[in-house]
């Protein structure tokens, strides 16, 4: 048994011993999905990474399109030269915002800030949950955090840089093709808007939700397993968007060690009866599947039973 695990059990034991209160079946507040942080993350992607490119197009490219469409009929190479210079300018702009090397990027600092907010949000809930069994909020040292944080920041930096690359290459392609085919200005600008809206609304939100959940899931798992909480209760968002492969797991007992099994929450004093999850159910922990808002609420019952048995002996 690890030292964090021992300390946690001791904290529970002391709480029961010194409070004189029976602690065997407390109601544990469920873990919440970090909705507000997820939204902040999406806003920062839009503001810092997507908007400058959108604005460059609005101010520097779109005003030229009508002229290019008209001139192109005789001088396509002149359009090409002019457009290439603008593309280079846009590339420089992107290299400032989200350079290939994240070390000097402000956006990397923003990602670190988001990660820290997610850790703090998770810690606050953990404190409320552990207080139900230890009497006081209980947090073990977060030794798991630096490597998880650094990996997440690296992965997210690349994901966001990829949607920035996608935005720029799709926009450039629309203009180049539009001028070459002598399309109408209004059709070209309509296509530009479509790309910008898709990146801004769909792509940014997807990364923000998916990645906030994934980091939260990793934090919860480490926090719980570190103190010997091997099981959790699967909690869905309980609305109409919950996917059919997650819905049947709501309220079921799950194991951090094996995501392919589940059990009904056992009655007091009984052992869980583990079953294989059907193939149509998800085979990963909550918040790991793309866009998942389900959460893992820690299951303390078996540790409590152990402690109570020790105390009775
Ligand atoms: Zn889910």
Which helices and strands appear, and what pairs or packs with what?
Layout: H1 3-19, H2 35-61, H3 65-72, H4 76-97, H5 106-134, H6 145-180, H7 185-226, E1 231-235, E2 253-255, E3 261-262, E4 275-276, E5 295-298, H8 301-312
Antiparallel strand pairs: 1-2, 1-5, 3-4
The structure holds zinc ion.
The ligands found in this model are: zinc ion
- The strand count comes to 5
Terminal Cα span: 20 Å
Query: How would you classify the helix and strand content by structural class?
Result: mainly alpha
Shape: elongated
**H and E string:** HHHHHHHEEEEEH
Number of helices in the DSSP assignment: 8
Overall tally of structural domains:
1
CA radius of gyration: 26 Å
Strand content: 5-15%
Low-confidence stretches: none
Record keyword descriptors for this entry.
313 residues; mainly alpha; 3-stranded antiparallel beta sheet; two-stranded antiparallel sheet; 5 strands; 62% helix; binds zinc ion
Tell me about this structure:
This protein has 313 residues and is mostly helical. The protein has one domain (3-18, 28-312). The protein contains 8 helices and 5 strands; from the N terminus they run αααααααβββββα. The protein has a 3-stranded antiparallel sheet, covered by helices on one side. The chain has a two-stranded antiparallel ribbon with strand order 3-4. It is elongated. The two termini are 20 Å apart. The model has no long low-confidence stretch (mean pLDDT 94). The structure holds zinc ion. Residues 236, 246, 292-294 line the site of zinc ion. The site of zinc ion has 5 residues, from loops.
């Amino acid at each position: 048994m690890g030292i964090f695990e021992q300390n946690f059990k001791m904290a529970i034991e002391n709480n029961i011993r010194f409070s004189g209160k029976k602690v065997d079946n407390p109601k544990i507040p469920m873990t919440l999905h970090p909705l507000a942080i997820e939204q902040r993350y999406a806003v920062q992607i839009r503001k810092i990474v997507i908007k400058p490119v959108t604005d460059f197009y609005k101010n520097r490219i779109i005003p030229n399109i009508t002229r290019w469409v008209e001139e192109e009929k005789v001088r396509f190479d002149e359009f090409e030269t002019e457009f290439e210079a603008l593309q280079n300018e846009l590339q420089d702009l992107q290299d400032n915002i989200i350079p290939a090397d994240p070390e000097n990027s402000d956006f990397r600092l923003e990602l670190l800030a988001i990660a820290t907010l997610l850790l703090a949000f998770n810690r606050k809930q953990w404190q409320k949950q552990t207080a139900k069994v230890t009497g006081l909020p209980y947090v073990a040292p977060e030794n798991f955090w630096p490597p998880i944080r650094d990996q997440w920041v690296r992965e997210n930096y690349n994901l966001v840089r990829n949607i920035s690359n996608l935005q720029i290459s799709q926009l450039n392609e629309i203009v180049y093709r539009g001028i070459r085919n002598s399309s109408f200005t209004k059709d070209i600008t309509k296509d530009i808007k479509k790309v910008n809206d898709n990146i801004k609304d769909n792509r940014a939100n997807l990364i923000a939700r998916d990645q906030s959940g994934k980091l939260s899931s990793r934090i919860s798992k480490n926090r719980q397993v570190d103190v010997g909480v091997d099981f959790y209760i699967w909690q869905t968002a309980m609305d109409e968007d919950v996917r059919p492969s997650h819905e049947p797991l709501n309220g079921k007992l799950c194991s951090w060690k094996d995501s392919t099994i589940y059990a009904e929450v056992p009655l007091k004093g009984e052992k869980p009866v583990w079953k294989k999850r059907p193939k149509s159910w998800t085979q990963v922990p909550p918040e790991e599947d793309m866009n998942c808002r389900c959460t893992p609420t820690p299951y303390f019952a078996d540790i409590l039973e152990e402690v109570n048995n020790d105390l009775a002996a």
